[in-house]
Every structure is written in structure tokens, then in C-alpha cells.
């Protein structure tokens, strides 16, 4: 891909990982994984959202890797994980379970952070033994479990069949996003970020989103349209914290409030005034702080050596 997949400088430029590996999922999908920080530190696993990549977590990785082992992976078809013909919430759960098995020792606990589709991944995998055995706590950022299209406010008029129909076509468009231009930045900021987002935040998100292939964007839009993971929310029995922006047009706060009400062990809901859907980029210090606090509260300092079940990348 010739298009720049992320910004190359500044706080949102991805740091160089300590190591990289390829994890093979249950159906053969190859998942690109990056590991940052000390090998003997408390573990954090980060799952990004639709049309994004590991670069989305750059600010969190940069801050946490000083004293945590941060594991970030590209969802199938995104970033450096090759496209795969199978799309769905169960494959996402397979991928997360495979990443945990490959990077964590048996019984090792980690904080799992999921943004948007990454949060949905955690919900889809909530009943999996590999997730229950490794998840000490979960942070859900800007996500929902069902009825995404009908509740999205990307289009500026009231809820109803017309808005749902048009939203479905906008989000599911096959059209390529093209180069990152001033107009493209304004459109992306309107749809996914708060009005006060700084230019470097908008640029970082635009580079990441525009790098996602249109066929991948379209394929996963159908999965999100049909999403129904309400049952998975009830299976998230570990401590779960939620962060959402009040100006989120893709997963408005109604989703976060529903999650908080349904979770067996919700330990906090933070609504950030004026922020949009890209909370880890728009509020990097707050999201990093929530992850750090969950790790301190729920991960024991006793751990064994990490597992190796994947192909190391030279």
C-alpha cells in the first residue's frame, strides 16, 4: 500500500515494537501482533475498531510501555493483518482468543482494552475460556452491543426509518475514501470526532482510517449493521469500565449507558463532554489512566514466562 498508514511524527506516531509476531487464528486468518515494553511487566492487550489499526493506540502504547507489556494487534483485514473472506463476530472472538494464547502465559492475567469494534470483539468473546482465563479487567471505549445503525447520529436529523436507511448506505459505501485532503479531514472530524479535536488528532485518525481498504471497510460494515451482542455483555463477568464521548455520532452515549446497566460488574462509566467516537485519540491521557488504574487494581505482580505460540517476525 503506497498510502501513508499513520502519521510519522508527534504523539500519535506509533512507537517501534520490541517484537512482532503473526498469530494464526482458528480458521487460518493471520493476525499481526506487536509487543511493546518489558516482558516481565503487567500485560495490557489492545483491540482497535473498524477501519483502524494498531496505530490507533499509539498514545496509549507510548505511555504504558514504560512499565507495562503492551500487546496490540490488527483486526483481520486491517493494518498489517491480511484480508480474510470470513467476517463476523465469532471470527473476531477467535482472533482475540488466539492472540491471548500466543502472547500470555497460562493463567496470566491482562487488562483488555477495546475501542468500537474492538470492544465488540471482547463482548463476542466474553464466554470463551481463553478470554475468561486471561482477562483481569476490561476497558470498553466508544462501543455498543446492538442497534448501531438505527442509533447513529452521523446524519443530522431525527431517528427513524429514513435516517436508518441513509446511514446504512453511508457507512456501508463501497466508494474509496481517497487521499487525505482538507475536505476529507473535515468530513472525518464531523463524523467521528468532537468539534474541539485538535488538528494533530484529526490528521492521525484520517491517516489511519483512509488507509483501510474500501473492500474491508464495506465487508465489516455489514457485520456492524447486523450486530447483536447483548448476550455477550451479560457474560463479561470481570470488572469492566466504560468511556464514551457525549458527541459520539457512531456509538452515542445511549449505548454506554445500556452496557453499564447490563454488565454484571461495571466499575465505572465516564462520559466525556464534547468528545466524539475516537476517545483514545481525543482523550489519550484519560484513557491511558483508566487502563493503568485497572491494571494496578486487578493484575497480580506474580506472573510466569510468556507463552510462544506464533511465528516471530524477524
TrEMBL record:
The keyword Transmembrane helix does not apply. Keywords: Hydrolase. It holds the Pfam family Abhydrolase_1. Signal peptide: none annotated. Residues 42-283 form the AB hydrolase-1 domain. It comes from the Bacteria. GO terms for molecular function: hydrolase activity. PANTHER family: BLL5160 PROTEIN, HYDROLASE, ALPHA/BETA FOLD FAMILY PROTEIN. This is Alpha/beta hydrolase. It comes from Streptomyces mutabilis.
Amino acid at each position: 500500500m503506497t498510502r501513508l498508514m499513520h502519521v510519522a511524527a508527534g504523539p500519535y506516531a506509533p512507537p517501534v515494537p520490541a517484537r512482532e509476531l503473526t498469530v494464526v487464528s482458528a480458521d487460518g486468518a493471520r493476525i499481526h501482533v506487536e509487543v511493546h515494553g518489558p516482558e516481565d511487566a503487567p500485560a495490557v492487550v489492545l483491540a482497535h475498531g473498524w477501519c483502524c489499526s494498531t496505530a490507533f493506540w499509539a498514545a496509549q502504547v507510548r505511555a504504558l510501555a514504560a512499565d507495562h507489556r503492551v500487546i496490540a494487534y490488527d483486526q483481520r483485514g486491517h493494518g498489517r493483518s491480511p484480508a480474510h473472506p470470513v467476517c463476523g463476530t465469532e471470527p473476531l472472538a477467535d482472533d482475540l482468543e488466539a492472540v491471548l494464547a500466543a502472547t500470555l502465559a497460562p493463567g496470566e492475567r491482562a487488562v483488555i482494552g477495546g475501542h468500537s469494534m474492538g470492544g465488540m470483539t471482547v463482548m463476542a468473546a466474553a464466554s470463551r475460556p481463553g478470554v475468561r482465563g486471561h482477562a483481569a479487567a476490561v476497558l470498553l471505549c466508544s462501543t455498543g452491543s446492538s442497534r448501531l445503525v438505527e442509533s447513529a447520529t452521523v446524519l443530522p436529523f431525527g431517528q427513524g426509518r429514513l435516517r436508518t436507511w441513509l446511514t446504512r448506505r453511508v457507512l456501508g459505501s463501497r466508494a474509496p475514501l481517497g487521499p487525505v485532503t482538507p475536505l476529507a479531514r473535515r468530513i472525518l472530524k464531523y463524523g467521528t470526532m468532537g468539534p474541539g479535536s485538535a488538528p494533530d488528532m484529526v490528521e492521525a485518525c484520517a491517516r489511519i482510517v483512509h488507509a483501510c481498504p474500501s473492500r474491508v471497510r464495506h465487508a465489516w460494515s455489514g457485520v456492524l449493521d447486523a450486530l447483536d451482542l447483548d448476550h455477550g455483555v451479560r457474560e463479561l463477568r470481570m470488572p469492566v469500565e466504560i468511556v464514551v464521548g457525549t458527541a459520539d455520532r457512531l456509538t452515542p452515549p445511549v449505548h454506554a449507558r445500556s452496557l453499564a446497566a447490563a454488565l454484571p460488574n461495571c466499575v465505572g462509566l465516564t462520559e466525556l463532554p464534547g468528545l466524539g467516537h475516537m476517545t483514545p485519540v481525543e482523550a489519550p491521557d484519560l484513557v491511558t489512566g483508566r487502563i493503568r488504574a485497572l491494571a494496578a487494581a486487578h493484575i497480580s505482580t506474580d506472573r510466569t514466562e510468556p507463552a510462544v505460540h506464533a511465528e516471530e517476525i524477524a
